Amino acid sequence: MARHSLANGLRVVLAPDRSSAVVGVAVYYDVGMRSEPEGRTGFAHLFEHMMFQGSQHVEKMAHMRHVQSSGGTVNGSTRMDYTNYFELLPSNALERALFLEADRMRSPRITAANLTNQISVVKEEIRVNVLNQPYGGFPWLSLPPVLFDTFPNAHNGYGDFVDLDSATVDDATAFFNTYYAPSNAVLVVCGDIDPELTTDLIERHFADIAARPKPSRPCTAEPDLTAPRRSRVTDALAPAPALALGWRVPDPVADLEAYLPYVVAAEVLSEGDASRLEQRLVRRDQLALSQSAYLGLFGDPFDSRDPVTLSMTLHHPATVIADAVLDALDDELRRFAADGLADGELRRVNARIASQLLREADSVLGRTLQFAAYELIYGRAELLTELPGRLAAVTGEQVVAAVATLTPDHRAVVELVPGAARTHSAPRRGR
Amino acid sequence: MTGVSGLLPPLGPSRAARRPSSAERTLGNGLTVLAVRRPAVPLVELRLRIPFAGNRPGHRARASLLANSLLLGTAQRSELELVQALQEVGTELAVGSDNDRVLISGSVLRAGLNTGLDLLAEVLTAAAYPARLVAGERKRLRDQLRIARSQPDVVARVARARRVYGKHPYAEVLAADGDVAGLDATALRRVHRQRIQPTGARLVLVGDLSPARTLDAVEAALGGWAPGAAPVSLRPAPTPVPGPLLLVDRPGAVQSCLRLAGSAPMRTDPGYPAMQLANLVFGGYFSSRYVENIREAKGYTYTPRSSIEHRMAGSAFAVDADVSTAVTAPALLETQYELGRMATLPITEAELDSARQYALGNLALSTSTQAGLAATLAGLAGPGLGLDWIADYRRALLSVGVDDVLEQASRFLAPSRLVTVVVGDAAAIREQLGTLAEIA
Q1: What is the pTM of this model?
Q2: Total number of domains constituting chain B
Q3: d(Cα B196, Cα B51) in Å, to the nearest integer?
Q4: Nearest CA in chain B to A58
C-alpha cells in the first residue's frame, strides 16, 4: 500500500494485489449528510445522484454504460461524513474508470432537466425505502433527532420533500464548487494494478483538475446526554412494535483505543446465535423477535467521525410491552457488567470476528472501500491491515468496562408504535 | 454509443481467469460433494443443498419451521453449546428454505474445517428439536411472517406467484400462519427423518483447501449420514396464462408495485444465453432500456428491473417496478411499450455488445470471491450443474447474435405472454389502469 498527493491536493492510495484480474476504484469526497445546510436536508444524497447524470465528456447514462459494457459494476452512497463513488472492473478497464471519475470530478452536468429528474427519482427512493415500507428508515431516521440536538447530527439526511423540491441548479453548482474540490477527495485503486503505471494514469487524468481550497468541516461536537430521553413514532404500516436505543460512544478518530472495546462489545452482545442478547431476549425470555446492536447508523463502525452512536434495534410482539423488553435488556447489561465475560466467550467471539474480517478481505471491492474510508476518516488507509490485530488485543476487562457505560441514564429510546397492528388482548409484562 | 469515443480509453488486454482446481465425489449414501480450491484467505465457504420439494398442503410451513429449528440443539449438545462450538471455529450456520430445497450456509476458519464438518454431521443426524424451543420458534416464525406480509414487495410476490402458478406448489411463497400453528416438535422430528437425508443432496466447499483431501474429510464426517427415499420431484411449473390485470388493494399506498411475470428457458436450454441478454437489454442492468425510460427520462421510479429466476420445476422472467401512485398507468404503458419493442424489433449491435460484456464481466466479478463462487455453485447445484456449466455459458454468450435475442424476446418478453399484477391504492389507480387493461 502506498499513498501520494497530486499538486491539486487529491490524495491517492494504491493497493496492488495481483491475485485476481479485478480492480476496484473508489473516490471518496469529504462531504456527507452532516455538511448539509439548514433548509437543504437530503442535499448531499441528491447531489450524489447528480454525479451520475453525465459530465463534460460523458453523456447522461454513459458513465454507467461505459463501466457495465466493460464488464464492471458501479455505484455510490452517501453517509454522515462522506459521499463515495466506486467501480469494480476487470483490470483491463482500469483507465476507463479513472477517466470517468476524473471527468465528473472536473465538471458534472448539473442542468435543470437532470435536477428535476433526479429529485423525482430520489423521492421515489424515499417512498420505496421509507414511506411505503413498514419500519422504513427505522431507526436511522428516527433515532438521531432524539439522541442529538444540533442540526448536522439530528436532521433527516434522506431529506424532506419540501427541501428536495426547492433545490436549484445554483445550489447544486455551489455545493459542487465547495465540496467536490480535489483537495477534499481521496482516490483509491486496489487490486490487479501495476503501481507505477497506475500512478502515471492517475496523473494523466486527474492532474489538470483545478485546485480549490479544502472546505471546512461542519461543527458536529455536542455533549453526551445527561438524562434519558424517550420518544415515540407511529408507523402506520407496521404490524408489530419495535424499539431503538442509542448511546454515545468515544470519538473513534481521537481515541481509537477507547473506541475498539465498544466494537467488540457489540459483537459479544449481538453477533450471532450465541450472543448475549439473542440468548437472553430471543431464546430464553422470548420477549424479542429479533435483536441487533451495532456501531454507526448504517452498521459500519468505521465510517463516521464523532459523534458515533451505539444502536440497538429490537422487534417485539405486540403482546409484550416495551418496558418488559427494556427491563430484561437492562438486567442482561447489568449482569454482564457485574459478572464479566464467561469462560471462552471472548475467544469464541474473536474467532468469529477474525473469520468475518477475512471474508471482507477476500473482496477487492470491500478492501477498496475500506482503504478509502480509513484514509478519509482516519487519514490512515493502513488501518485496514492493523484492525484485526488491534481488535484481537482488546481485553475482556475493556469489553466489560464498555458495556458498563451502556446504562439507561444517558440513552435515547424510540418506541415504534405499530399503526397496522391487529387488536390484541391486554399486553403482558414479561413472561 | 456516445460522443465520447475519441476520449474514452480503450480496454487493455484482458487477463483470462483460470479455472480453479476442484474435485467431486458422490458418497455411498448419495451425497455429492464438490470441493473447489480458492486460497485467497484462510477460510472455507460451505453450502449444503438438501432437496425439500413437496406437494402436500402445508409443506412450505414444514420447510420454514424446520429450517428455523434445525440448530436448536442435538442429542449431544444444547442449543447454546452447539452455537458456541460453531462460533469457536469462526462460523455460524444459516438455514434457509424455499419451494425446492433447504440450504445450510456458513464460512469456517480453515483450521476448523474438520470440526465444522463434524458439527454439521451432528446436526444432520441428531438434531434434537426440543419442544419448548420449537414452540418459541413457532411463535417467532408466525410473528415474522406477519411482519413480512406487511411489506408491499412481499404482498406483490405472494399475489404474483398465486396468479402465475395457480395450484402448483410454487404458488406458496410464504408459509401460511395456520399451517405453522399446527406444527410441533414431534412433527418436525418426523419431517427431519423423512427429508433431511443425503440422497440427492449436494455439498459445495470453496476456499483454502486441498480438493482431494477435503473430499476424504467430508466422507469421514458425513459418510455415516443414513440415506433415505428419493427426493420428491415437482411436476413442471405451468406456463402462465395471461388474463386480466390483477389489482391488489393497499389503501392509501403512496406507490404502486408493478409486477409482471412469464416463463423463461432453463439454464440448460440452448436459448438461455440469448434470453439472458434479452433480459439485460430490457431491464436487467442499469444501462437498460427500462431504466433509461421510466427512471432516467421520466422519473417514475427508483429501481425498475427485470430478472430471470431459475427453479427446479421451471424458470421465470419477471419485471418489477415500484412507481408513484399518480403515474401508475403511464408507467405500465411504458413497461408494455418497452417489452413490445423488445419482442418485435431487433436490438442494436451496441446494445448486444454492452449486455454481453456485462454478463461476462459480472460472472467473473461475482465468482471472484470465495463467498461469491460458493453462492453461484450452490445456485447451480439443484440441477446438478457446476464449473463446466459456467465455462460453457461463457462460451455460449460469445456467439449470441441480434436475431437470437429477438427470437427469445418474441417468445418470452412479449406483453401478451405476461401476467400483470399491481399492488396499490385501488381507489386511486383502478380507473387509470382500466384504460390500459381489463382488470380482474
Answers
A1: 0.96
A2: 2
A3: 8
A4: B4
